[in-house]
Amino acid sequence: MSPIDRTPPRLDRLRIPPVALAAGFAALAGAALILVSGHDPLSAYAEIVRGSLSPESLPDTLAWATPLVGMTLAAALPLRGGMVNLGGDGQLVIGGLVAALAPLVLAGPGPFGAAAGLALAALGGGLYAALAAWGEVRHGVPMLISSLLLSYPAVGVTSYLARFPLRDVATGLPQTLMVPLDARLPVLTGALNAGSLLIAAIALAVVVFDRRTSAGYELRMRGKNARFAGYGGVRLGRQAVGTMFASGAIAGLVGATLVLGSQFRFIDGALLTPAYTWSGLMAALLVGGEPVGAILAALFFAALQTGGFAMQRETSVPRVLTLVLQAIVILFLAMRQGIGRRT
Predict the structure, then answer these.
(1) Average pLDDT over the chain, rounded to whole?
(2) Tens of pLDDT, residues 14-43
(3) Are 73 and 303 in contact (CB under 8 A)?
(4) pLDDT single digits (tens) 232-254
(5) Is 330 among the domain residues?
């Protein structure tokens, strides 16, 4: 046996993974905040676990995780290639409004209306996201800025339509007419509907694309070094437009599943209030856009958020603590990466 074979394991191979370290630091910081507020950290954390993972609470956690995983994938896909899609809110509401109107406008049996709503929602969200990429490719407008700015007209126009020309006049609320019963997504159990299966299928497709296709490899190559990818024959402009289209299509489908599976109409502001877009972006940033890690991070954030309701109810600790924990995890990782670059 050579001397190299007898060398003990390197210490850097035994280091704690950064994400686990960040989660542990956030837990300690959260415990300190709970102690300062005069409550028991162990009881609060126990209620988070019980309120998210107990048999009676798990369906609610999965229902909350469905749109969150979808919006995480919408952020992770372009992030894998070094691009940032900040326009998830706009793509989400476009998909939701289109899905609400499709069964009302298109003639045909109920399942056809639901399928058309999903397809048109994906198309609408995808085209709107691709517009940001096209602006960068053709006119040099940074995608980071244009994707965010494009959200404002989308949110404003859909809000206007829901409040005025498309409003259900039978109510005083800013919402469209109800989706017909036979055009709604089938219920699986409790709060879960077929939209969860659709998002799960999308998640599997994104993982396969990332790990098993040449296009996924080229996207990862772009994320490492876009100039090198271009020299290697990757058509960066077409790739950017296609990636953003796929990202927006996922966001549009998330809006459609929420409308067709739980809300049954487009309600102004209802898709934006839970902040799925920004929680999904944080989950994607947590792992640098890697799909499997992003999905796990989204599930973790969903458990935190649903468990936060139980914590607030049982211990009087505000559920905003769970949002603080998410922010601490992201900030810790950002600080750690910055320190690593300086040393």
Answers:
(1) 91
(2) 567 777 888 888 999 999 999 998 999 999
(3) no
(4) 999 999 999 999 999 999 999 99
(5) yes
Give mean pLDDT, residues 85-102: 97
195 within some domain? yes
Structural domain range at position 150: 18-338
Angle made by CA atoms 191, 193, 197, in degrees to the nearest 5: 130
182 lies in some domain: yes
Write down the pTM of the prediction.
0.91
The CATH code of the domain that includes 98 is 1.10.3470
